[in-house]
Specification:
With 136 residues, the chain is mainly β. It contains 1 helix and 8 strands. The longest helix has 11 residues, at 6-16. The radius of gyration is 32 Å and the shape is globular. The N and C termini lie far apart (78 Å).
């Protein structure tokens, strides 16, 4: 009986078992097909850069979020969305800014110039506080 190449023998054996897929005579692809390439993982979430703006709202007599992280040179904007309740954004440590009284829809922005931590509060509501962590 003539000798059959190993790949042909494998193909005949697979075909007899009900499978019809088979490789060619090349040993590198003998009897198998490579799986499709894995999908590339999604890109990581975009991180804040100096071009992005950090936003904080005033709602239910709180800063939302109370604690934020920004980069040096990145603009931080607060908006009063608390109906008829006025608020301020006043630095207490680490910087010097004060928005003055802000009514519904008013905004105030501050851009930090150096790394560190800035504590701030509302002059009208002494329990309303927030923190900005400024990174390089």
């Amino acid at each position: 009986m003539p000798r059959l190449p190993l790949t042909l023998l494998a193909c005949l054996t697979i075909a007899a078992g009900g499978l019809v897929a088979c490789g060619d005579d090349d040993e590198d692809s003998a009897g198998s097909s490579s799986p499709p390439p894995a999908a590339a993982p999604p890109p990581p979430a975009a991180s804040a850069s100096s071009g992005d703006e950090v936003k904080v709202t005033m709602k239910a007599i709180k800063y939302v979020p109370e604690d934020v992280t920004a980069k040096v040179g990145q603009k931080i904007t607060w908006e009063n969305t608390d109906g008829d309740i006025p608020h301020t954004v006043t630095a207490s440590d680490g910087a010097d800014f004060d928005s003055g009284n802000m009514t519904a829809g008013d905004t105030f922005s501050y851009t930090p110039t150096e790394a560190g931590e800035i504590a701030y509060f509302c002059k009208i509501h002494s329990n309303q506080k927030g923190t900005i962590t400024v990174e390089e």
